[in-house]
Write a structure and sequence with these properties.
Length: about 425
């Protein structure tokens, strides 16, 4: 979505923001006391760059577009160019997130293997060297900006090697875990390791949506609530005299990676975000916090498991939230029940009958009205959802969501109606 220019222009989404769009977003953020921290991938999750022919030669492994080859001079030039363009629009930054998570297949490329054969270096050294080079470039060209990186690639690096690398002088690690009940003892061991290897500041990262399934469409609030309650315990246990917690980032995933489907849309995740923010703000989620969220979002009741269509709220995006909930909880189920459990359809208008356009003129009266009614009601519901989605999403996003979650069931029902009409029109009434 960033409006990259020059050699990087190929990275732009067709719907990329313009520079003026970004300046407006930054201005709105300042007006509402938000501080923006840009994130640019610089090592792993580079699919949006390395999928393009122009940059495919910079892959660690020729077949996979996920990880950057740290051996090529062009790789660093690419990263520097991305950073420079982002910095040019985002002025007055305190932090910049350089990603660096899930650098899969690092060390498995041909150049890496040759290097390993010729020297004592290994995957950990490769990772640390590239990250330090990226962070050093930011610090040198923008002394007031501190780089942040995801911590997962650091977790298995030995304490001795991490300390020796002096990475703590270059970056602040953001420790992430999105599980409902992660191992707190293990987490504290990791924090102590970072403290002993020289890091003076750390960040945490939770999730208020996403993280529970690549194709998840409704947000399980209780799962994310549990995640935040666990992080509160960790925050309480951090030894503040030796390491400082800068803050916690509530991630809200939209895709698991560049090629995956959409998970929960933002309006669907807003109730979860509200619950998680109140939990972090007050250190607890009691009846008081629940009432506050309920009132803010216009819910009659607020259930922290999947909300149902009876739980319709009233907040920006609630029309999408309400209609998505209705479709996900009821569309497939109602179509299955109608077409698979109705004894008249099973006995007198099966696939055999539909193929040959045969129908009993008396029996069809027992299901024709219901089928047409269900079909019409769902077409209306989907049309209303489409209208709501189109107000805030680009057409291809609307198309993708409907194709994934609506079209299979609605097309099946529509085909049944068509078969029924053709049978009635054919005169094969037996």
């Amino acid at each position: 979505m960033f409006p990259y220019e020059g050699k990087l222009q190929v990275l732009r989404s067709p719907n990329a923001y313009s520079p003026s769009d970004i300046r407006e977003i930054l201005n709105l953020a300042r007006m509402h006391n938000f501080e923006v921290i840009p994130l640019v991938q610089t090592f792993g999750h580079m699919e949006f760059v390395l999928k393009h022919k122009t940059f495919s030669h910079l892959r660690e492994m020729k077949s996979f577009p996920n990880s950057l080859n740290p051996h090529k001079k062009e790789s660093m030039e690419l990263v520097k160019s991305m950073i420079d363009q982002i910095m040019a629009i985002h002025t007055d930054l305190k932090w910049m997130h350089i990603g660096s998570d899930e650098v899969y297949y690092l060390g498995e490329g041909e150049e890496s293997k040759k290097l390993f054969e010729q020297s004592q270096t290994n995957v950990d050294s490769l990772f640390l060297s590239h990250v330090k080079a990226v962070a050093s470039y930011i610090i040198t060209s923008h002394p007031d900006v501190k780089p942040i990186l995801w911590d997962d690639m650091l977790r298995n690096i030995s304490e001795e090697k991490l300390k020796e690398s002096m990475l703590s002088q270059f970056v602040e690690p953001m420790i992430w875990d999105y599980n409902a009940n992660f191992d707190m003892d293990k987490m504290m061991l990791q924090i102590h390791k970072y403290q002993r290897t020289g890091f003076s500041h750390i960040w945490f990262a939770s999730a208020f949506k996403g993280a529970t399934g690549a194709a998840q469409s409704l947000t399980p609030i209780s799962y994310h609530l549990a995640n935040h309650l666990q992080w509160l315990k960790v925050a309480e246990a951090v030894p503040r005299d030796s390491i400082q917690l800068h803050g916690i980032v509530l991630t809200g995933w939209q895709r698991y990676d560049h090629f995956s489907v959409l998970c929960e849309l933002l309006p669907v995740g807003i109730p979860s975000l509200a619950v998680c923010l109140q939990t972090l703000k007050n250190g607890i989620f009691s009846e008081k916090e629940e009432d506050f969220v309920q009132k803010c979002l216009g819910f009659k009741t607020l259930r922290v498991n999947f909300l149902s269509i009876e739980d319709a709220g009233n907040f920006p995006g609630s029309d999408i939230f309400n209609r998505v909930t209705q479709i996900i909880t009821s569309l497939q189920e109602s179509v299955d029940k109608l077409l698979e459990e109705n004894s008249y359809i099973k006995g007198w208008f099966s696939n055999y009958h539909r193929k040959r356009k045969i129908v009993h003129p008396i029996i069809i009266r027992h299901f024709e009205g219901e089928v047409r009614s269900v079909h019409a009601n769902w077409k209306t519901a989907v049309s209303e959802l489409s209208t709501a989605l189109e107000k805030i999403y680009y057409p291809e996003t609307v198309e993708e969501w409907l194709e994934e979650h609506v079209n299979p069931a609605l097309t099946r029902l529509g085909q049944f109606v068509q078969d029924m009409d053709e049978a009635l029109a054919s005169g094969n009434l037996k």
